[in-house]
Each structure stands twice: as structure tokens, then as C-alpha cells.
Amino acid sequence: MSTTPGVSYDKDGRKTLIPLENNPDVFADLARNLGVAPSLGFHDVFSIDEPELLAMVPRPVHSLLVIVPAPVYYRVREKQHGYEEITYEGAGADEPVTWFKQTIRHTCGLIALLHSISNGPAREFVVPGSELDKLLAEALPLKPRERAELLYNSEFLEKAHMAAAVKGDTVAPAGEEPNGYHFICFVKGKDGHLWELEGASDGPIDRGLLADDEDVLSEKALDAGIRRFTRVAEGNLEFSVVALADSD
User: Fold this and answer.
1) Tell me, what CATH number does 164's domain have?
2) Phi and psi torsions of 114, nearest 5°
3) 86 with 201: CB under 8 angstroms?
4) Within a domain: residue 3?
5) Which residues on neighbouring strands pair with residue 185, listed in sequence order?
6) Quick check: is 2 in a domain?
7) Which stretches make up the UCH catalytic domain (predicted)?
8) Mean pLDDT, the chain, whole residue set
9) pLDDT tens-digit profile of 225-240?
10) pLDDT band at 76 (very low <50, low <70, confident <90, very high)
11) In-domain check, residue 39
12) What is the pLDDT of residues 178-211, one digit of tens each?
């Protein structure tokens, strides 16, 4: 059992943490504690449809962290026939992306951050020899189940997450409270494709090929990615988007 303050266990004995707020400062703080260089910046994306607001984000964008309201999330997932049947056993350096299965409750923000910094250009910002660098190196050759066990048993990740979870602009909810949102990460893989990565799924989801000069905030990536959720939002505006790019 964990000795980290704030960590609890649900009725099934599954480890439960306090969820993260989708706040650039919270993610930046967590990233630094994990071992990510400060030259990787976390930037609010105030609109995915207004060019003048999109222009405020430094480019290229290495990855996107998106928080989606639960009702919208499930509305999109229900339209994906066979989604629940997807299985994935990828492992090793030949994977276009590195994917992590979430097994700790309320850690979709942490998993999204791990997806965003272990794939694409953002991986280069992980400090060599740091605890995070060692963890990602250990995880790379493992199958998804073994990767999940590695994360579940990592005291280093647990402590870093909990330290960040009590920060932010809103009061951190108790770990046992239901979570009304889902974090999703979008990255450009080694194969040039846009990948949707989420720990609650059964593997990475390929959203199509991007051109060499298209990043994850390009029009094509937005249409194939986050706009699939906003198009069915039915007026629900409780979305939040953080872009990972070079610091200002």
C-alpha cells in the first residue's frame, strides 16, 4: 500500500489519486518535477477556430493535451463501432508511438502528459539520466500490460503527480470523487501520422497522415482530432486545450 499522502484505494483495491487540473502552470510544474527541461513550454490554446488566437501559440506544436467533458467523450466513442474490441500489443522502438494503459484511477492527466512527452519532438526535452528518462527507457521494450504495471508501482510518478494535483486555480477534488472529464493527447508519430492517445482506450488510435510541414495544431490535425469532439458537443463548451511547444 502507498504511503504517499492523499493516495487512496477504491472498493476494488485500485490505487486512486487526485485528478490534475488542465492548467499550463500545473502541467509545467509536474513536467519539471518529472525531469523535463524548462525549454519545453506549456501554452493555453484559447480557440481552435479563430486564426488570430491560434497565431498566439508558438509553432511547431509538439503535442496537445485536451480535456473533454465526459458526455461529449462518450458520445464520440459510441460512434466508433468496434472501439471496445481494439486490442494492442505493441512494444519497442519500432512503434510509431509509445502508448500507456491507465490502471490508476484519476490519472488520465498524468497519462496524457506521459504520452505527450514520450512521443515526437517533445521526447528530446526529457533530461538525460533523469528519473523520467530512466522510466521511459525501461517502459519502451515492454508490452502494454507490463508498462501499466511499471507505472502503477512507480513511487516517483505517484509523488510527482500528487504534488502537482494540489496546485492550480480550482480546489482539488478528493480522489474518490467521480471525474466528469477525460484527458486526451494528440501527437505526431514517427510515421508522420496524427495519433490519439488515451490511457482508457485499448491502444493508440491512428487519425491519418500529416504532411511534413503540418503539426498537431494544423487544420488537418484539428479536423481529424479535437474537432471530432467539438462537433458533437451540442453547446458544451467545457473543453480545455494546452499545447506543448518551445518556451516563449
Assistant:
1) 3.40.532.10
2) -60, -40
3) yes
4) no
5) 65, 197
6) no
7) 16-246
8) 87
9) 999 988 888 777 778 8
10) confident
11) yes
12) 557 789 999 999 999 999 999 888 899 999 999 9
Distance separating the N- and C-terminal Cα atoms of the chain: 42
Domain annotation covers residue 1: no
196 and 31 in contact (C-beta within 8 Å)? Answer: no
Q: What share of the chain is helix, strand, coil (3-state, %, to 5)?
A: 35, 20, 50
Q: Three-state SS across 51-91? A: HHHHCCCCCCCCEEEEEEEHHHHHHHHHCCCCHHHCCCCCC
117 and 36 in contact (C-beta within 8 Å)? Answer: yes
Q: Domain of 236?
A: 8-246
CA distance 241 to 183: 10
How many domains does one find in the chain?
1
Planar angle of CA 166, 167, 172, nearest 5 degrees? 45
Q: Tell the burial category of 233 from Cβ atoms under 10 Å away from its Cβ (0-12, 13-18, 19+).
A: middle
Note if 161 is an active site residue: no
**Three cell numbers, residue 91:** 512494444
Contacts of 211 (CB under 8 A, 6+ apart): 192, 220
- pTM confidence score: 0.90
Of 3, 102, 68, 85, nearest to 226 (Cα)?
A: 68
**What does residue 36 show for φ and ψ, rounded to 5 degrees?**
-110, 135
Residue among 43, 62, 106, 108 flagged as catalytic? 108
User: Any catalytic annotation for residue 62?
Assistant: no
Q: Which amino acid is it at 111?
A: I
